[in-house]
Every structure is written in structure tokens, then in C-alpha cells.
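Progress report, Aim 2. The chain analyzed during this reporting quarter is listed below.
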Amino acid sequence: MRSVSRGIKTLFALAVGMMTFVVMTGTAHAASASVSRTGVNAYASWNWNGRSTIDGINFRVTDTACDDNDVYVRLRVYLTSRPDGVDTTKHYDSNGCNNGTVSSTGLPLRYTVDVTGIRVIGCVDDAGSDTCVRSGFLDNPNV
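Predicted C-alpha cells for the chain:
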């Protein structure tokens, strides 16, 4: 009888551990945004996968001007520890005027703190400060 009781306690502990894991990871939610201005069309999609992970990130950017300036897309990720946001790597289209779209697929981002939201940023890499357009703030539904 003692081994049965010990086995039940072990199963209960495992079940509680699994429930805690599910609660901690949250639910995956698909999201996307696009931005456009003279010279650039930019798009990103991703999955909110819990409080601190974004995965399945896809970028697409197209140069829509004929001015010899590259264009790029990136995300600004807002964290509880960095409320002003952290910019991801720039994903460039250097193919020229409407000569193609540059895509990056399936990229993940993992942080040790909560991700509160994201903005998609599309820019023309012109002289001086780049000319950019930003999406609205997209909330992480798991936070």
C-alpha cells in the first residue's frame, strides 16, 4: 500500500508540474503588420509564443523607388526591462527599384524578461538619418 501511495504522490507532482509549465509558456498567437511610405513597403509576421518568446518571424521588404537607396525592415521589441524598445537586425533589399523582395523566414527571438509589444519599422537608407515609417504598437497577448 505504501508503494501505491508513493506512486500516486509522484503522479500528482508530475501533473502539477505540467500544469505549471503550460501556465508559464502561455499560448501562441499569430500576428503581423505592414508599413509603407515613399520608397519602401515592409511586412513582418510572427508568433507570440509565451511571455518572452517570439518565433516564426518572417520579414519582407521591397524597394519601391528608383533613387539608388537601399531599404530595410526590422522590429522594435519592447521589453519590461527596456520600455523604449530594442531594435532587431536590419533586413535589407539592395536589389534596386522594384527588382525584388527580400525575405527572411522563421527567425526566433527569446528574452529573459517579458516582451510587452512590437512595432514593425520600414526604412529607406538615405543620406543622414534614415527615413522610416513605424506600425502601431502590437501588444503581446500573453503578458
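The two ends are 45 Å apart (CA to CA). The chain has one domain: 26-139. These observations will guide the mutagenesis work planned for the next reporting period.
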